[in-house]
# Entry
Amino acid sequence: MTAPTAITLTAIVRSTTFVVADAPDLPNQYGEGFITPARVTITHRTNEHPHRAAVTAYVDGHWRKDTDTPTDHPLGQHYAGPVDTWPDWVASIAQQVTGTEETSR
# Structure
């Protein structure tokens, strides 16, 4: 029996989750109301990946029927593609995490 060979691992995707405070509500992409953000997760490819600029965001929090009616219903939504189509504060976090403004699919 031969000795096992060493396995080389290279991380090509990183994901960072932040707790969010005082961020503006986001329009619910899936229906009426808004999301009051509680967390944002930025997932991006590392320098070792050939398409380094690819980045996505996931914002989760609580659904609100309107700006005055808080609920305990959890809701989240994804953002992908060019960050200029994302809410400004989400795009800004993505650019800080990735260290670039070239964030696209």
